């Protein structure tokens, strides 16, 4: 965990699979993920060390249905037979209350790490375990009688701590760490902007509902200072085009008018034209 914190402090939280497999502890090889399985249980340990969620493209079926339960806690599926040694190691982790690492796929061979996480309940009848993303969640009840305020709290934690960071990394990776409007390539200054906001039913955390934007253009998009047509052409609001101000207004905003978004290489990662149209109509209503 100290190694992951140090690595993340350098501005790149995403780790490659080969880095995880080549990790060493005190001079000895100690892969942080299994070469074949989703649960890593080293021979010298009784409890699991890490769990992994495989990257799947938007719309593709996931090999395991890891999801949020009715109580707001995340669920991680067993790997085959519940008595398999890796699944047993999750039970040991739950019994001892030890922390684990969770590596979440955001691209081919790329993972966003979450740590520490804890196994707070084992649900063998559903072939899954309940996972807490932060210490406060470890004290919530998972027996089906969670209060509404606790459930909403856990849902918010899952959204803020897991879904939003994963969405950001997947979008920025698809756009090759580049602002789709101004081409800025400083990852620390990039956001994953929702086309349809995630508070709305159609605002799904899919790459096709996102655009990689620098913080200035993300804010301008959210404030309807500029909009994007379904064909990817950027429009700046007419009153903004008539303003006279400093170089940021002239070169950062006004110069974007009638330019086209720089799109990802994979067509499946392109913005959904229907979602762009829905958002563009709201922009046009304010022009």
TrEMBL record:
Residue span, HNH nuclease domain: 179-226
Keyword list, A-Z: Endonuclease, Hydrolase, Nuclease
InterPro entries: HNH_nuc
GO molecular function, one term: endonuclease activity
Pfam family, one: HNH_2
Name of this protein: HNH endonuclease
